[in-house]
Design a protein that fits this description.
The complex is a heterotetramer of chains A (646), B (104), C (174) and D (497).
Chain A lengths: L2 H23 L5 H30 L1 E2 L2 E2 L2 E10 L5 E8 L1 H24 L6 H19 L4 H19 L6 H32 L4 H9 L4 H8 L1 E2 L2 E2 H16 L8 H4 L5 H10 L4 H8 L1 H7 L1 H22 L5 H22 L8 H31 L15 H15 L5 H16 L1 H26 L16 H16 L22 H22 L5 H8 L1 H8 L4 H48 L7 H23 L1
Antiparallel strand pairs in A: 1-2, 3-4, 5-6
Helix pairs in contact in A: 1-2, 1-4, 2-3, 2-4, 3-4, 3-11, 3-16, 3-20, 4-5, 5-6, 6-9, 7-13, 9-12, 9-14, 11-16, 12-15, 13-14, 14-15, 14-19, 15-16, 15-18, 15-19, 16-17, 16-18, 16-20, 17-19, 17-20, 18-19, 18-21, 19-21, 22-23
Chain B lengths: L5 H21 L3 H25 L6 H31 L13
Helix pairs in contact in B: 1-2, 2-3
Chain D lengths: L2 H18 L3 H31 L7 E9 L4 E7 L1 H20 L7 H20 L3 H22 L4 H29 L7 H6 L4 H18 L8 H8 L2 H26 L1 H27 L4 H22 L2 H32 L10 H4 L1 H14 L6 H14 L4 H29 L16 H19 L1 H17 L2 H4 L2
Antiparallel strand pairs in D: 1-2
Classes of the chains: A mainly alpha (646), B mainly alpha (104), C mainly alpha (174), D mainly alpha (497).
């Protein structure tokens, strides 16, 4: 085991160590100590991740100019049969190393930031324990060698998200949000699980790379077998992959499984930054990327469905984002929209020369998005920390009192709006160009969404920092400590310059370096759309005025629908509360109490009692009736005997 | 000596027996039921003596059994009367229809 | 038809008639007297058959003991002159059917069966002498053991009757 | 004396000692030390067994011994163990220790209570070790009476009704079992009760069909198989904490073990032919139990229905007849045994303090009694199959194993079973959200003290068990691998692989 493998192992192990220490002995430590333990372990992993990434991209991962996968560790954890087993291990390949970087950096930033943000909260050590648990699970997820390993960590990620959303466990809304997040993703995971079962049964393996091999090689008997059966016009393989994607859609909040993400903002804001913006929610994208060869080569129909779902979600979420007034919810819908971007980028990609740009673009966007979205959330957290509200009503004109926050927030907004040369410009550019090549319709949707994105982000920006005049004597001075400012600055640097990385030469679908196309003429349109969006936002929200309300009332029907998130939540509530609870749960409980218990069990008991009541009078206590029975019996027997033997 | 046919004697005793049975079933008074039992016992006694006399004149077994039955009947009656009196004290009646506590 | 035969039939008729009165009479005292008479006539049949000892026992124990006991108990538990309540018709009918069926069945069986006396045996005189010797004999066919058992039974009955009938102090308080 | 008999003698000695001493405190300590020694002994036997296997011991069961009991009827007191019975014994020993610790604060008729608890554990040990069907049945019956008394005397709520219902339904089940084993004794021509002997017989299929249904249903009643599960909710809800733990943790496993060891193993042909009946029953139990759980308001009812649902996995795994599924069923038995014991223990601790188990009356437990609240959450997370805990590995093993049966029918059953994990999440999170999280609803709750030392050690012990299986499932699977292989071999012709 060389030093790279060891570092990779340490990256995964350190967070769980700190979780164990904090979880078991956290209540004996002071808040400061527990916070430092958490930060120290995560910062160490970030440094190790940089080391491993450097090693992988430039040293050991590079074989003949191609990035090949490298198994750093693998051992059998649970054996089902000779061919099926759950292996735990660490695989290093372009996407997993990239994810390691993203996760460790964002996570360590969030850890540091939380030192300031969560100062003085109850259960401080528990918060850090949960954060460590989450980091561990997420890291374990991305380095998974085995599809079941991914499922395991997938669930762990879900539960740590549940615990963190429900961190303020005395708040009913937080409880409800935590439950909702877990249950919706669990429902999606059901699809994932069945997908895994189908894949594993048909390929006789649970190993990612074996599955990919067996399902992509031309003439593979497994592939032939798998695609032989079809259902509703799609092969069993496509169905299996779509089921797997369902799991991904749940985690990545794709329509219609997106409903949990906005509510998840009930958690502490740093948590939203880490889990619900940068890392966990992209797990679905990562899952599809991990199985990308299978999708692209053997089930392009499934991939196309993913592309359309992604495109729709991107637009849908962006529209809702324009109407929300809770700044974290705006960010949440923006996250959904951006992840959908990544998703449809994967969807429009294919296998073969010139078709794989979408893959790289998607991963690139994932990478840059992590920086600017985490930054946006942390910035929003700083704002909330200062004004103690999530609603836009209480904000405005904060640019003087929160200078650092203002500046970094602006960078992030420019990045997400796709203004060159900030990070988002490059990745979005790549996505749109690859969409234009294969699915023009999706390209136009993406373009329009891009404009919307610029609009609602700058609506947010102006609404927070401008809109109202700067108050003369504000008590909202930036009271944040270095702990909150340093992460903002570091992420700001990332958001500004991450796009300049030649991403294609590191991450591509087949490991070969790929030059992302860059056409000046092409990028005019997206940039222009973005600038128009910003301009409209400035007109409407740069200063306090009446225009937004007028516009809203002009299209009030549509506005209301969007404001109410197109009533998706209500539909879900109807299905769960009314249909499942009232039409399934309640009848099941009633059936059990009344029919099974009442009719069968108590019924048989009552039959026994009734029978005994019916024959009880024979035991009347009357001597004469007893003797009468006796005599009757004697006579009968005597008669029988005599007749028999005469 | 010309004898009464055995079957006539048996018919006598069974008549007596079933009279007793009828009395035992239909009477509601414990003492009258006891009397019916006496009738039944006596019909048996007649049978014993008759069989001894007609069929096995060289033995005395029938006579012995009759004697024992008489003695047992005496014992039985004394106990029964004791029970009846006790019952009467408790229920103030010896009507069998009213003393049905030993049921179910 | 010899005189003894005629006497037997007369006695038999009387036994049955008084037996029936015992069972049917609704005055309990009359029933007891009928029983007494019925038992006496049975003793008469015994005398007719020359089993004097049994006849004597019948009179001494039944007539002199048991029936007297019954009459005492009637005095203890009944007001004189009171007639017994009527039995329920259904019950009467049922017991009547039972009794008649039983009687018919037995009579039929008796009439079907041919009784054969033990052939060529020397009869034994059922005199007190013979009975006494066999009663206390402890050789084969001796009855000394049952005799002792009966003694104990009687003793037990005596004690038992006292124990049952004795008035307990708490009973009087009730 | 051989080591396995010691396993049965020790509880007897403990029980007698409990009867002799006078002081309540002494009774508690005797019961606790007896059960701890028993636990150590069980671990020792397992280690010995493993060493024997590593030394190359073959044979289905090891450590065999046999004493004459009633020879004319071929009843021998024969004991032997294999991996499956060992894990059940280990699980039993663990739950017994925890159960005794949890009941530390019982004050009503202490001596009788602990005596019955030890008696109940004895019956479980006897059941899991005996190889003679008659003796097995004897212990199965022996287990019913203490349960009846524990619920009837120390219970709460409608305890008489529940106790009677439980006893009658279990007796009904054991009547079916008895008919079944009599059938095995007479109709197989074996004239023996030894199931290893019977396993070698070739039993005609007509006989097998009848006996299989009888035996599986009979044991199924013990496992709370639909529609014979209704004793479970009432029984659990009325039972005192330790009795609930034993009932769900141990006694329901007697049934599962019987279904596997007796019904399925001895009658393979009928199992292949008729297991669909029980697959249907299991699927119904799983999904319908889960939905019924969702509607429960009483925590104990909730856990009882969820036990019905979880034990459905056991039945499903056994009825699917593949090696992986059977392995999963065994794992699920162990896992559910420990997990549900923890669940009931934490519910009991809450009930002891709040005197209510209604979800909507509770609240804020995590704030007031953090240890108990955490134990509840852990058992809940285990119940909904969170990786790292035992529930996950066992359920997944059942799923993977069930998926190996091809055919639409089996697939649908498996998918239904999988779907239950979502419903499980719903009800577990509801309970956690309302009862454990949230704000304190009742001023009384502010006075609560967190778990005492005995409650703490019970919970920690069980959590260690859950984590051990969850993190290192290979320990368990390696132990039972050889046995599940030999069981699965009997179906190999049909199921394939």
């Amino acid at each position: 085991m060389n030093s790279y493998d060891l570092s990779a192992l340490l990256i995964v192990i350190l967070p769980i160590l700190s979780f164990t220490v904090l979880g078991l002995f956290g209540n004996r430590f002071s808040n400061r100590t527990s916070g430092l333990i958490g930060c120290a372990s995560l910062v160490t992993t970030a440094i190790l991740a940089l080391y491993v990434a450097a090693g992988y991209f430039f040293d050991f991962g590079l074989v003949n100019g191609e990035h090949v996968k490298h198994i750093a560790l693998q051992f059998q954890w649970l054996k089902f049969t000779d061919s099926l087993s759950i292996d735990l291990g660490i695989v290093l390949d372009p996407i997993s190393v990239m994810m390691l970087l993203v996760i460790t950096i964002v996570s360590s930033m969030v850890h540091i930031y939380s030192l300031g943000y969560m100062k003085g909260e109850d259960y401080f050590e528990r918060y850090y324990a949960y954060l460590s648990l989450f980091s561990f699970s997420m890291l374990g997820l991305v380095v998974a060698v085995n599809i079941f390993q991914m499922y395991i960590f997938w669930e762990l990620v879900g539960v740590s998200s549940f615990l963190l959303i429900g961190f303020y466990f005395t708040k009913p809304s937080a409880i409800a949000a935590a439950k909702k997040a877990f249950i919706v993703t669990r429902f999606a995971d059901l699809g994932f699980l069945i997908g895994i079962l189908m894949l594993s049964y048909n390929t006789k393996s649970l190993d990612f790379f074996t599955i990919i091999d067996r399902l992509t090689q031309v003439g593979s008997p497994y592939l032939a077998n798998f695609t032989a059966t079809s259902f509703m016009g799609m092969s069993a393989l496509s169905w299996a992959l779509l089921l797997v994607f369902m799991g991904g859609a749940g985690k990545s909040a794709m329509f219609p499984l997106h409903i949990w993400l906005p509510d998840a903002m009930e958690g502490p804001t740093p948590v939203s930054a880490l889990i619900h913006a940068a890392t966990m929610v992209v797990a679905g994208v990562f899952l599809v990327a991990r199985l990308f060869p299978v999708f692209a080569i053997s089930a392009p129909d499934a991939l196309l469905i993913i592309a359309y779902i992604g495109a729709f979600t991107a637009l849908f979420a962006a529209v809702i984002a324009c109407t929300q007034t809770d700044i974290k919810r705006v960010l949440a819908y923006s996250t959904i929209s951006q992840i959908a971007y990544m998703m449809f980028a994967l969807g429009v990609a294919g296998w073969g020369e010139g078709k794989m740009e979408g893959f790289t673009a998607s991963m690139f966007h994932l990478f840059t998005h992590a920086f600017f979205k985490a930054l946006l959330f942390l910035g929003a957290g700083a704002v909330i920390h200062a004004v103690h509200t999530n609603e836009m009503e209480g904000m405005g004109g904060l640019r003087k009192s929160l200078p650092i926050t203002h500046f970094t927030f602006l960078i992030a907004c420019l990045a997400i709006a796709g203004v060159p040369p900030f990070a988002g410009f490059f990745s979005k550019e790549a996505i749109l160009s690859s969409a234009l090549q294969t699915q023009p319709l999706i390209f136009y949707v993406g373009l329009f969404t891009s404009g919307l994105t610029a609009f609602y982000m700058f609506r947010l920006y102006f609404r927070i920092f401008w809109y109202n005049p700067v108050p003369e004597h504000s008590h909202n001075h930036e009271t944040h400590t270095w702990a909150m400012n340093i992460p903002l600055i570091i992420l700001g640097v990332g958001a500004a310059f991450a796009g300049l990385i030649p991403f294609g030469s590191f991450v591509s679908a087949d490991g070969k370096a790929l030059e992302l196309p860059f056409h000046l003429t092409f990028s005019i349109a997206p940039v222009a759309v973005g600038l128009i969006g910003i301009g409209i936002a400035y007109l409407l929200y740069g200063k306090k005025n009446e225009i937004p309300d007028k516009i809203a009332s002009a299209v009030s029907g549509f506005y209301q629908a969007a404001y109410h998130k197109f009533y998706i939540d209500e539909i879900y509530l109807f299905i769960t509360k009314k249909v499942l609870f009232n039409l399934v749960g309640r009848p099941a409980a009633w059936f059990d109490r009344t029919v099974v218990n009442g009719l069968f069990i108590n019924g048989s008991a009552e039959t026994a009692v009734a029978t005994s009541n019916a024959i009880k009078p024979m035991q009347s206590g009357r001597l004469q009736s007893y003797t009468m029975f006796f005599l009757g019996g004697v006579l009968l027997l005597a008669a029988l005997l005599i007749i028999k033997f005469m | 000596m010309e004898q009464v046919p055995l079957s006539h004697i048996l018919i006598l005793s069974s008549t007596l027996f079933f009279l007793g049975v009828y009395g035992f079933f239909s009477r509601r008074n414990l003492i009258t039921m006891l009397m019916s039992v006496e009738l039944i016992l006596n019909s048996v006694n007649i049978n014993f003596i008759a069989f001894n006399k007609y069929l096995f004149p060289h033995q005395l077994e029938g006579i012995f059994f009759t004697m024992f039955i008489i003695v047992v009947a005496a014992a039985e009656v004394s106990i029964s009367i004791a029970i009846i009196i006790n019952l009467y004290r408790r229920f103030k009646t010896i009507d069998i229809e009213d003393t049905t506590t030993m049921k179910y | 038809m010899s005189a003894s035969t005629i006497i037997f039939y007369i006695l038999a008729t009387l036994v049955v008639v008084f037996g029936a009165l015992t069972v049917f009479s609704r005055k309990i005292f009359r029933a007891a007297i009928s029983l007494l008479l019925s038992l006496t006539f049975i003793a008469g049949i015994y005398f007719l058959w020359n089993v004097d000892f049994i006849g004597a026992l019948q009179i001494i124990i039944y007539v002199g003991g048991i029936v007297v006991l019954i009459i005492f108990s009637i005095f203890l538990t009944h007001h004189s002159g009171q007639s017994l309540p009527k039995a329920k018709t259904g019950k009467k009918l049922l017991s009547g059917i039972m009794a008649v069926a039983g009687l018919g069945f037995t009579t039929w069986v008796v009439s079907q069966y041919v009784f054969k006396p033990a052939p060529g045996v020397v009869p034994v005189e059922p005199s007190v002498h013979n009975i006494g010797i066999q009663m206390l004999s402890y050789s084969d066919y001796g009855y000394v053991f049952p005799f002792e058992v009966i003694n104990i039974l009687l003793l037990a009955a005596l004690v038992g009757a006292i124990v049952i009938a004795i008035k307990k102090s708490q009973d009087t308080e009730e | 004396m051989d080591i396995l008999s010691l396993l049965l003698v020790l509880p007897v000695i403990t029980a007698l000692a409990i009867l002799i001493v006078k002081k309540d405190q002494a009774v508690r300590w005797i019961a606790l030390s007896g059960s701890i020694i028993q636990f150590a002994l069980a671990i020792g036997i397992t280690a010995y067994y493993v060493s024997l296997r590593q030394a190359g011991a073959t044979g289905n069961m090891l450590l065999e011994s046999s004493y004459e009991w009633f020879a004319p009827l071929q009843i021998y007191f024969s004991t032997a163990v294999d991996g499956i019975s060992l894990v059940m014994i280990l699980m039993t020993a663990m739950v017994v220790v925890a159960g005794i610790l949890v009941s530390w604060r019982i004050t009503k008729q202490v001596k009788e209570f602990f005596f019955l608890i030890v008696l109940l554990s004895l019956s479980a040990y006897g059941f899991f070790t005996s190889t003679n069907l008659f003796v097995m049945f004897f212990f199965l019956e022996l287990a019913v009476i203490p349960k009846y008394l524990l619920i009837g005397v120390w219970g709460s709520g409608r305890k008489e009704y529940s106790a009677m219902k439980l006893a009658l339904m279990l007796m009904f089940g054991s009547a079916l079992v008895f008919i079944g084993i009599l059938g095995l004794f007479y109709f197989t021509g074996a004239q023996t009760w030894d199931f290893q002997e019977i396993a070698k017989m070739h039993i005609p299929i007509e006989t097998q069909r009848i006996l299989y249904v009888l035996l599986f249903t009979g044991f199924g009643v013990f496992t709370a198989m639909f529609p014979f599960h209704t004793w479970a909710p009432d029984g659990h809800s009325s039972a005192p904490t330790a009795a609930s733990m034993f009932l769900a943790g141990i006694s329901m496993k007697l049934g599962g073990y019987g279904c596997l060891r007796v019904a399925t193993y001895l009658l393979p042909d009928a199992a292949v032919e008729l297991s669909w009946i029980f697959i249907i029953a299991a699927s119904i139990a799983i999904i319908y139990g889960a939905f019924a759980t969702m509607m429960q308001k009483d925590l104990k009812y909730m856990n009882a229905y969820s036990s019905v649902s979880h034990c459905g996995f056991v039945i499903l795994g056994i009825a699917m007849l593949t090696k992986v599924a059977v392995t999963g069923a065994v794992m699920q038995m162990v896992s559910h045994g420990i997990m549900t014991a923890l669940f009931f223990a934490s519910i009991g601790m809450i009930y002891d303090r709040a005197h209510t188990r209604q979800v909507d009356e509770l609240g804020g437990m995590l704030k007031q009694v953090p240890f108990i609240g955490s134990a509840f959450i852990i058992s809940g997370l285990c119940s909904l199959g969170l990786p790292g805990f035992s529930g996950f590995v066992s359920e997944m093993t059942v799923f993977v194993g069930s998926w190996e049966r091809t055919g639409v029918f089996y697939r649908v059953a498996t998918i239904l079973a999988c779907a239950s994990i979502v419903v499980t999440a719903v009800y577990i999170l509801r309970a956690v959200g309302f009862a454990i999280w949230g704000t304190v609803t009742n001023k009384e709750y502010l006075k609560f003290k967190d778990a005492s030392w005995s409650e703490r050690s019970a919970a920690v012990l069980l959590i260690i068990g859950i984590l051990l299986i969850g993190l290192a499932p290979f320990l368990l699977t390696n132990l039972i691998d050889i046995d599940t292989t030999s069981i699965a071999q009997r179906f190999i012709a049909v199921v394939g692989k």
